Amino acid sequence: MNPLKNLLFIISIFLSPFSFAQEKQKITIEYAGIAASDPEIEDGALIFLRDESQQVHFIHKGVNLWCDKAVYYQDQDYIEAFSNVNMKQGDSISMVAKYIDYSGKTEIAVAKGDVVLTEPNSVLTTDKLYFDRTRQLAYYDTSGKVVRDSSGTITSQIGRYYMNAKKYQFTKDVVLVNPDYTLNTERLDFFPDNGHAYLFGPSTIVGEESHIYTERGFYDTNANTGYFQRNSKINYDNRTVEGDSIYFDRNRSFASATNNITVTDTLNNSIVKGHYAEVWRDKDSVFITKRALAITVQEKDSVYLHADTLMVTGKEDNRITRAYYNAKLYKSDLAGKADSIHVNHKKGLTELINLKRFSSTDAFAIARKPVLWNLGNQMTGDTIHLISNTETEKLDSLKVFNNAFLVSKDTISEDGYNQIKGQRLIGLFKDNELYNVDIIKNAETIRYMRNEANELIGIQKSKSGSINIQIIEQAIEEVRFINQIDGNIFPEPDFPRNARRLRGFDWRGEERPTSVDDLFKDDPPLVLPKISGLEDYVPPEDFIDDSVAERLEQAGKATPNKPNRAAQNLPQEDEEKDPKEDLKPKKEQTTQPKVEWTPKDKPTEISEEKKKLKVKGEE
């Protein structure tokens, strides 16, 4: 070092404020214990060392920087700070590192080695951090970690912090670890003040009780609520919820979904569909409406249940399904219709219910009276019970309470119907076909009698206390009258047409669903809400954008024959891609800055000469 220059420099400290320029825009040296020049580093460069009392202190436009050792390049207004470096902006932002270089012209800092950036609601740690004061943007591309007490820890390969917006933007291998869940995504926009997180690209949120997948979503880490779109689904134990739009509340174990919803129960082999649903995990219940459809998946023949509203409640070993308002049931050999249908899956009991609120004069009373079709037979009554074998999944028996009526169309005549009515009906099934029927109390019948050649013998009409019917191949084979009151067989011409219908006769074959689509044929037009959704993905801005390139160019003009130190150590391109482009060929990066510099112009991070400048007390 030059002792004379050193002496003159120290004297100047006491004669005037310790500043190397009167220009307000230049870096000001607030304090230095030892100062010297060293032409071996660079002509005109000044070296500062701390003393025993305090560190070297610089100020520039409201930013304070402390370090144990610094090299200041006056002509480029550029500082390299070494050892225990601390940079503060105002009262809220602080950054510490082993090394920081800072340009007073571009207002860009590069921090290296155990970098810690602290703001009121989070702490960022990384190995290298770029900080643009003009845009108030911090950026890392060597992996980093952000810790926020209430939200957890966020790690990623690339990250940005927009200080004005108080927003973090993480990309590439993003992981948020919270005591209650772990979030993985391609990109995460995070606001530490309110804990709001925006997810882009394939993302998962995995907790002890739920697993969420989405490709576009929002999550409130404070309230533990979320909103998800684009191929989103939530797994609750053995139940999966899918829909165009899903809302999630972790604290209440609640989820709701809108438009094109599917709720799949893998344990009970059932599926519920519709366009609005609510799922309560702790209550083990599902509420679904708007073209609601429940499907009980069976090996050979699934059962479909449709109504205005469906409710599925109870644990898997005691589950209940309720369908109400214009409920319909369909499988290949069975169909039903009622105002409400109640299914107890444990007992294998299906109840078709006629609500009492409909009077006999109500136009909907007949239409909504429970009706059941099995192959060629129609059964109606005030209430119908179907009992299934829960192991074989086949129909076992049938009960019709009050005003029981069994009708089957005669196979040949155009308007002939076999009819049996009574107070109650009990039927038995074999291989899902009705083979035995008992009509109990006040039984009446009208039956078209045919011989083996299917020739009409006559029409039988009778009354008795009870009737037993044997059915073979969907045709009445034998009828037994118990406590018969009267009965006769009439030739067809002698049997009046107005007497060929028992009181209460109501053939409803046109209402019978013959396919899954038929379940919806008399539904009102479906009007779905328009989901405005979350904002689309916008690619992250490059750290070296046009404004930075312009500043770098201007910074180098004052010293055209020297390396532009403001440009050293800066990232030359951002290795990122749009999460939506994951399955597409990788595009070329086009974010190269306008200012170009060659490797030979870039000095080493810490030259050997600078390493020789030991701070007092250093080894």
Automatic annotation (TrEMBL):
Database matches in InterPro entries: OstA-like_N (IPR005653)
Leader sequence residues: 1-21
Domain Organic solvent tolerance-like N-terminal: 25-186
Coiled coil: none
Transmembrane found in the keyword field: no
Keywords on record: Signal
Region (Disordered) residue spans: 553-619
Entry keyword Signal: yes
Record's compositionally biased regions (Basic and acidic residues): 577-589, 597-619
Entry-linked Pfam families: OstA_2
Top-level taxon of the source organism: Bacteria
Protein name (Swiss-Prot/TrEMBL): OstA-like protein
Lineage: Bacteria, Pseudomonadati, Bacteroidota, Flavobacteriia, Flavobacteriales
